[in-house]
Amino acid sequence: MVKKLAKILILSAILLFNINLRAGAVVLDSQFITEKVRTDIINSLKKVTNGRIEVTIAPLPYGNINVPPGNIDVKTEIDVNNLRSSTIARVSIYVDNTNLRNFGVKVDIKVYDKVWVAKDRITKDSALGSVQLEEKEVSAILNKLPGKDFVPGKYIARRNLEPGKIIEISDVEGVPTIVRNSPVSVIFKSQKIAVTVPATAMTGGKIGDFIKVRSDAYKKIYVGKIIGENVVLVNI
Fold first, then answer.
1. What is the pTM of this model?
2. Cα dihedral 208→210→215→221 (10° resolution)
3. For the chain, which residues score pLDDT lower than 70?
């Protein structure tokens, strides 16, 4: 009888201890966590875009999460540099800087921003004259877009760009010092003389590059070094 009574007292003490623990716990409901995750993601994306951001979060794997009282923080991590329209966010829950829970949650992200778009077909090596700003959904190419200081007039196309194509940084390059098929002045220089004749650039390039030029006067093709705007030096 005494042993039975002692067992009952022990079980009662354990039950009371568990009740006290629950009473002292803080309950984080899924709605609170979801909104914190959404806010974290939006704040992360605002560092790389000024566009309109939409974030849809799938149901969390937990309805409520019990944590001990203290300084509670919910942190969310996504790979902004390799963003996808649908991705997994890593959620971590801390109490007094101690990590208590980690889990992943599926999120769908849409970013709408004004980007440069080809109005008409732009051929390779042509200037970006036929472009305009349009609002597009750019979540999957956010890290491939030109920066805010991008000026189309200072760039040419690296490849053919079809109408409606969003201009990505890999599609363009800076306008070269000499553009292909443009008229140039060729300086033929030796130790004793220097002669300048008109020619046509067969390739484009920047200062320091070697390019081919065609001289109509001499009916020949030469390779020279770009030394200035529309000026090519050929050593003879």
1. 0.67
2. 170
3. 1-24
